[in-house]
Write a structure and sequence with these properties.
The complex is a heterodimer. Chain A is of the alpha/beta class. Chain A has four helices and ten strands, in the order ββββαββαβαβαββ. By secondary structure, chain B is an alpha/beta fold. Chain B folds into three domains: 182 residues, Aconitase, domain 3 (2-Layer Sandwich); 106 residues, no CATH class; 109 residues, Aconitase, domain 3, CATH 3.30.499. Helix content of chain B is 42%, strand content 13%. Classes of the chains: A alpha/beta, B alpha/beta.
């Protein structure tokens, strides 16, 4: 088990299985088809992301460097949370970007009964260490534990 | 973050629970970027990115309804991105069924909400709200709460306004309380270039290709571009602004650029020159071979890569009046050269409603119509945002459309040849 300390953007505690992308996560491209056409597993629809394409995102610990793509990204993430189709948490190696921050905060402030903890600044080492399927636990103070 | 008494009062709920939540959203957003304060929005109008009444986006319309029910409206009138539907644009029976009965069933409802929230007028739908005809052109130094990425990068770079790459919904929340968090591209430091891009091409680089190359290289950083003035001049005239509009949209969609400086051309580069370049800035040299490499590396995701194109979109972001005229001249001339009278691929040129209105008053409109080309106010991206279009071979000279959809990119010259019967 290895611990990483990050910064809390949206508070909460959760344990979930990791899905990992080492390239920018395109929020619109990843979620749009799944949300639009009722995919209950919310499989990643971004054809340009070989690491994630086709993998379920719902209920997972999404580990990523940052998000990229359309400025609708924040509201797409907000919608995913409001529809309860969101990842269990989002864990950023880098400083969070403005679109992901917006999505996480909109969900935290405006969606009742849904918690999606978001932690950023976990560092490159976090993203190098965590792999698909590992058990990830997010603590309220921004500590992230990763178990093989 | 340090708030003024007025801002703190709103956050504490003195003006109601809903407004307190709007303020809380903006404060948390600012805190995520270590913003020390909120600053007043100074532009006359806002611009929103969310123009589409997609059924799946119901949570967005629920949120807007919460704002309306609480009696909260935007402090500024606003324009909004293009509409997703236009019956003038070719669509088959199945597409029409999916568009109208399944995907965009909330369009009328959402447009009613927009009107109540502060839409400028019924034609205020375009990603190029800053066109003179549209009337939402910020002044230099204005602080904005915009979100549309191509409009943000244009406002920052060409007009010298100040705006972060905000997300949809955050845009309207800013203009509801009248403030945005002070960080990133609002600050002098955040507007400094961390890349120097040297354009060493032997001919004028294609705007959408150059922007794509730079966007993919610098991602969210600020580039200072040297050597482009040789090709597009040192004056922000119609042609240069149209070039920078297309260039910027590609930097923003192929990367995440919110601001660029063009030496001897854009306002801050003219004022401050190399003082805008941060110490230790990285360098990227672009020559003909680099542009060729970038274009060759675009994935082709058509089901049949050799399929004959069924539709062509030009105008993402929307075309200017001068660009519409220029395309008319070029299509006419190319058809004449190839011995044709009408385009051989259904072709749609997209522009803002009021730009199209102005175009219709010129003699070019009839000439363009005679070539078989359709004009529309539609958002091509929204048109293509469904699984049916994956099977449809669409070509475009928009690098933004290429990035977000299955449309295949060609340069303007290649598109012209393709639609007028020449070879690609």
């Amino acid at each position: 088990m290895k611990q990483f300390k990050g910064r809390v953007i949206a508070p909460g505690e959760v344990t979930a299985e990791a899905v990992v992308t080492t390239q920018g996560f395109n929020t619109l491209a990843s979620f749009q088809m799944a949300l639009q056409f009722g995919d209950k597993e919310v499989k990643c629809g971004d054809q340009n992301n070989e690491e994630l394409h086709g993998k379920p995102l719902i209920g997972k610990a999404l580990c990523l460097p940052q998000t990229i793509g359309s400025t609708t990204g924040g509201l797409v993430l907000y919608c995913a949370c409001a529809m309860e189709r969101n990842p269990a948490c989002m864990l950023f190696a880098n400083h969070i970007d403005s679109l992901a921050a917006a999505g996480a905060i909109l969900a935290d402030v405006w969606v009742d009964g849904v918690s999606m903890p978001v932690v950023d600044c976990l560092g490159d080492e976090f993203l190098n260490y965590v792999k698909d399927g590992m058990k990830v636990t997010v603590k309220a103070d921004g500590v992230v534990e990763v178990e093989e | 973050m340090i708030l003024t008494k007025e801002q703190q009062a709103i956050l504490d709920g003195e003006k109601g629970e809903t407004l307190a939540k709007v303020m809380k959203t903006l404060v948390m957003y600012g805190d995520a970027f270590e913003a020390e304060k909120l600053v007043p929005i100074t532009s006359k109008y806002n611009h929103l990115v969310t123009s589409f009444g997609l059924k799946v986006m119901s949570p967005v319309y629920d949120l807007m309804q919460k704002l309306l029910d609480a009696g909260v409206a935007s402090g500024q009138k606003f324009s909004v991105d293009p509409r997703p539907l236009d019956k003038n644009v070719p669509a088959n029976f199945l597409q029409n069924l999916v568009f109208n009965k399944f995907m965009y069933t909330k369009q009328d409802f959402y447009e009613e909400q927009l009107e109540k929230l502060g839409l400028m007028d019924k034609d205020a739908f375009s990603c190029t709200c800053y066109m003179d005809e549209m009337g939402n052109k910020p002044q230099k130094g204005d602080v904005l709460s915009w979100a549309e990425s191509s409009a943000v990068v244009y406002a920052n770079s060409v007009l010298g306004a100040r705006c972060n790459r905000n997300s949809g919904i955050i845009d309207i929340m800013g203009s509801i309380v009248g403030y945005v968090p002070y960080f990133g591209l609002l600050t002098d430091e955040g507007r400094k270039a961390t890349w120097v891009v040297k354009v060493n091409t032997t001919k004028k680089p294609e705007a959408q290709l150059l922007g794509s190359a730079i966007g993919m290289k610098v991602m969210e950083d600020v580039p200072y571009v040297v050597g482009l003035d040789k090709w597009i001049g040192t004056e922000l005239n119609d042609a240069a602004c149209a070039y920078l509009k297309d260039f910027g949209a590609a930097t923003a969609s192929n990367g995440a650029v919110g601001l660029y400086h063009i030496e001897n051309l854009t306002p801050e580069a003219c004022e401050l020159g190399e003082k805008l370049i941060s110490e230790g800035a990285k360098e990227y040299i672009i020559d003909d071979a680099e542009l060729e490499r970038v274009q060759k590396n675009y994935p082709v995701i058509w089901k049949d890569p050799d399929a004959a194109p069924k539709l062509c979109f030009v105008g993402c972001p929307h075309l200017s009046l001068e660009q519409l005229k220029d395309w008319t001249d070029k299509i006419e001339a190319s058809l004449k050269e190839n011995g044709g009278k009408k385009v051989c691929i259904p072709t749609v040129l997209t522009a803002a409603p009021k730009v199209l209105e102005a175009f219709e008053k010129t003699e070019y409109a009839e000439r363009l119509k005679a070539t078989g080309v359709i004009t529309s106010y539609i958002c091509p991206l929204m048109y293509m945002n469904n699984p049916l279009c994956k099977k449809m071979p669409v070509i475009t000279s928009s690098n933004k459309l290429r990035t977000y959809t299955s449309a295949r990119y060609y340069t303007d010259a290649e598109i012209l040849k393709a639609i007028t019967g020449g070879k690609k």
